[in-house]
Amino acid sequence: MRRGKVFELFESIQGEGIYQGIRQVFVRFYGCNLNHCRFCDTTLEGYKEFRAEDLVKEINSYQKPFHSVSLTGGEPLLQKDFLKELLVLLKQRGLRTYLETNGILASELSELIDEVDIIAMDVKLPSSTGLGSFWPEHKRFLEVACGKDAFIKTVICNSTREEDIHRALEIISDFNLPLVLQPNSFELGEALRDKLREFQKICLGSLSDVRIIPQLHKLIGVR
Ligand code: SF4
User: Fold this and answer.
1) What are the mean pLDDT values of the chain's consecutive 10-residue runs (223 residues total)?
2) CA-to-CA dists, residue 112 to 59, 88, 91, angstroms
3) Which candidate, 40, 81, 83, 104, has a CA 20 to 30 Å from the CA of 187?
4) Inter-CA distances, 206 with 64, 128, 148, 202, 203, Å
């Protein structure tokens, strides 16, 4: 029987993106396909294995109401078969789902796209992450995700270069999705604020909905 690897399960508020502030149950999946974004604040030390039915029971035991179940990581799409099973069961019980993903694994997404309600997708800028670029992967991912309730989030650091913003816009401006510029919480300050304002103006030249949104859970001190 298939089992999923889950690092932790908890309830809190969504701290990022356009759904900021809603109450959710979070399932943090073990494992990530990127190693390791410079601003990453997630440590995944070990996991517990769950059958999908048992995980749904645990999720259902949280006090209601909550807006949705956040499936986060790491990268949840690394466990696509288990994730699909879980999504189907959650839908059967009338629970909405919110997938947080680094926006790289397009073919995995395509296998479960019909089951997921909301997609919060990262675009990884090389000058922010300190890693290589994923432009073709992000483009393919957007082609799969664009018919859904989806938005794009990208982390802006002191190191983020304007040329990466232009490169990202070449890809995402073909899709009519909101874009969130999220400041790196470890670097909040005057320099980053000015950069965010400048990048927002640039992005508004190609997109109609561009928002600067910091991580709320860190500002108010919740998980
Ligand atoms: S994709 Fe997310 S979880 Fe993985 S290393 Fe980057 S920030 Fe961390």
Assistant:
1) 94 98 98 93 92 97 97 97 98 97 98 98 98 97 96 98 98 95 94 97 97 94 87
2) 20, 9, 12
3) 104
4) 40, 21, 21, 8, 6
| pLDDT for residue 122 | 98
75-76-81-83 Cα dihedral, nearest 10 degrees = 180
Taking CA atoms, 7 is separated from 50, 61, 192, 194, in Å, by 10, 18, 32, 36
Q: First CA to last CA across the chain, in angstroms?
A: 32
Strand pairing of 4-13 and 23-29?
A: antiparallel
Q: What is the pLDDT of residue 93?
A: 96
In which residue are the tokens 């997109």 written? 207
Question: 40 CB under 6 A from ligand 1?
Answer: yes
Q: Are 103 and 136 in contact (CB under 8 A)?
A: no
Q: Give the residue, out of 102, 133, 153, with the most ligand 1 atoms within 8 A of its beta carbon, to mutate for a pocket test.
A: 102
Would you tell me how many other CB atoms lie within 10 Å of the CB of residue 43?
6
CA of 82 to the centre of ligand 1 (A): 20
Residue 1 confidence (pLDDT): 74
Atom of ligand 1 nearest to the CA of 36: 5
Taking the centre of ligand 1 as the mean of its atom positions, its distance from the CA of residue 85, in whole angstroms, is 24
| Burial category of 108 from C-beta neighbours within 10 Å (exposed 0-12, middle 13-18, buried 19 and up) | buried
C-alpha 122/C-alpha 112 separation (Å) is 18
